[in-house]
């Protein structure tokens, strides 16, 4: 099987109290695992076993038609969740540092203004999806949302950090209150990893 679940850099319970162990475990070992399994089935059917996930996500238009939707949905679901787990840490510093912090200040004026804009985008996203800090094709930072399992990599964007706003990401602990999940996410956002991706 070409695609496996990534090893998490923390235990299921280590993001408590902001992200509960039960949700992390189900999200990883059920939701993410299902995307990986379905992606593996789709690449096998498409004879695309030798492609990297980036190659898959950037060449969907040339995928065999019977597998194209599955490659988009499960390839995106697999990759988006890999990026999501990397976006979290038990040792959240609360804000960006270094060159990323400077670039955020240059674009939004301050980290606080950026954080308000990111939170507003996450609140306003209708239905299932993701909100990303990305580097666009011009090399500039931007906040974008993607629906369902669309990957920013397919759109030519470089993901820096991401929040999952599908209800499965937060429903057990936060019920339907997405605002509480977004507030919690800021406490466990991995700005060190974001800086490295930037
Ligand atoms: Mn998810």
Give the structure's gist in a few sentences.
The chain is mainly α and 198 residues long.
The low-confidence parts are none
- How much beta, percentage-wise? 5-15%
Question: What is Rg?
Answer: 17 Å
Shape: globular
Bound molecules: manganese (II) ion
How many runs of DSSP E, i.e. beta strands?
A: 3
Kindly state the percentage of residues in helix. Answer: 40-55%
**What would you call the structural class?**
mainly alpha
Strand order of the largest sheet: 2-1-3
End-to-end distance: 30 Å
By oligomeric state, this entry counts as single chain
Instruction: Provide a count of the helices.
Output: 8
Mean pLDDT: 97
List the secondary-structure elements in sequence, H or E. HHHHHEEEHHH
Largest sheet: number of strands, sense, barrel closure = 3 strands, antiparallel
Characteristic key phrases:
single chain; 198 residues; mainly alpha; three-stranded antiparallel β-sheet
Could you describe the 3D structure shown?
With 198 residues, the chain is mainly α. The chain is 51% helix and 11% strand. It has eight helices and three strands; from the N terminus they run αααααβββααα. The protein has a three-stranded antiparallel β-sheet with strand order 2-1-3, sandwiched between helices. A hairpin with a 5-residue loop joins strand 1 (129-135) and strand 2 (141-147). The protein binds manganese (II) ion.
């Amino acid at each position: 099987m070409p695609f496996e679940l990534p090893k998490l850099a923390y235990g299921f319970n280590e993001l408590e109290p902001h992200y509960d162990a039960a949700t992390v475990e189900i999200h990883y070992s059920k939701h993410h695992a299902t995307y990986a399994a379905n992606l593996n089935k789709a690449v096998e059917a498409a004879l695309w076993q030798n492609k990297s996930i980036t190659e898959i996500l950037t060449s969907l238009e040339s995928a065999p038609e019977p597998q194209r939707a599955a490659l988009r949905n499960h390839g995106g679901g697999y990759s988006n969740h890999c990026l999501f787990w990397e976006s979290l840490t038990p040792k959240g510093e609360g804000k960006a540092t270094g060159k990323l912090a400077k670039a955020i200040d240059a674009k939004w004026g301050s980290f606080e203004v950026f954080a308000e804009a990111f939170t507003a985008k996450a609140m306003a996203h209708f239905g299932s999806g993701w909100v990303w800090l990305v580097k666009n094709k011009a090399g500039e930072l931007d906040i974008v949302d993607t629906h369902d399992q669309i990957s920013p990599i397919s759109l030519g964007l470089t993901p820096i950090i991401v929040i999952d706003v599908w209800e499965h990401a937060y429903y057990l602990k936060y019920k339907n209150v997405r605002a509480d999940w977004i507030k919690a996410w800021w406490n466990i956002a991995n700005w060190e990893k974001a800086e490295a991706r930037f």
